[in-house]
Each structure stands twice: as structure tokens, then as C-alpha cells.
């Protein structure tokens, strides 16, 4: 547990949450300020700041619980789809520094645009960036 982490306090039961699901490694609860009602967060019980700190061997448990909770949200809300998102670091919009997945139910024609897109300056620029990223894989 990390002192002053609001999600650690939810895991510890020190502050209330609309809990949906609890498993050995994760808990899931409704986001207090939903993009769309039913918007939920799946978080590891242990404190890891973001995706890059999550241990690989937690992957199966996290993905399995994300799928399980996602299916339940879709079923309970009557949604036609579900967005899965994760903000990592402040620049990406992360406000709570305890790793978490956002599950957002989506409805045909709900009009929600999650992010805008843009074109690369050129095909060469795109290929050069792909090569740079490939070379950065460790
Ligand atoms: P992020 O910007 O990815 O760090 O998202 C943090 C999310 O946590 C936001 O969508 C908040 O609405 C949500 N949140 C913050 N405090 C609580 C809380 N006490 N219970 C439920 N959700 C919360
Ligand atoms: Zn925490």
C-alpha cells in the first residue's frame, strides 16, 4: 500500500466505492465521474504506478478480470461495445498514480470521440519512426 494513494485506500476499505468485482489480485469499481454510466476501473490490489511497473506475471489475472467485468458491464447496461483504456503518466492524462484500466460501455450512435487522429508528414517519416521504435525494443 502506498500512503496517500486513493485507490490503495479503496482496496483497504478505508474509503467507499461502488465495488463490482473482487479477486485475488484485482478489484473493480465504478468510476465516480463516468464518461458513460457503467464506466468502471479494474485495478491491481497492490500498488504499481502504471503499466510499466506492472509485473508480467500479473498479466493473466488482470486481462481475465478485465474481460469478466467488461462482459458484465455490457450485459448489465445493454451496451453494444466497450472501450478499454489506460492512461500512463501525467502527459497521458493519468491523475491517479495507481495503475488502472478504464472500461467504458459504448452504445450505437452515442457520439463519444475518445481521441482525434492526424496524418504523418510523409510515409518516410512514418517508416523512420517505426524503425526508431523497433530499435528501442529491449
Ligand atoms: P486517470 O485520469 O486515468 O488517472 O483516471 C482516474 C479516474 O479515477 C478518473 O476517471 C476519476 O473519475 C476516477 N476516480 C477518482 N477518485 C475516485 C474514487 N474515489 N472512486 C471512483 N473513481 C475515482
Ligand atoms: Zn495505490
Give your account of this protein's structure.
With 138 residues, the protein is an alpha+beta fold. The chain has one domain (6-113): HIT-like (HIT family, subunit A, 2-Layer Sandwich). 28% of the residues lie in helices and 18% in strands. It has three helices and five strands, in the order H-E-E-E-H-E-E-H. Strands 1-2-3-5-4 form a five-stranded antiparallel sheet, covered by helices on one side. A hairpin with a 3-residue loop joins strand 1 and strand 2. The two termini are 30 Å apart. It binds adenosine monophosphate and zinc ion (ZN). Residues 2, 5, 7-8, 47, 98 line the site of zinc ion. The site of adenosine monophosphate has 11 residues, from loops. One of its GO terms (molecular function) is catalytic activity. The active site is at residue 100. This is Histidine triad (HIT) family protein. Residues 6-113 form the HIT domain. Pfam families: HIT.
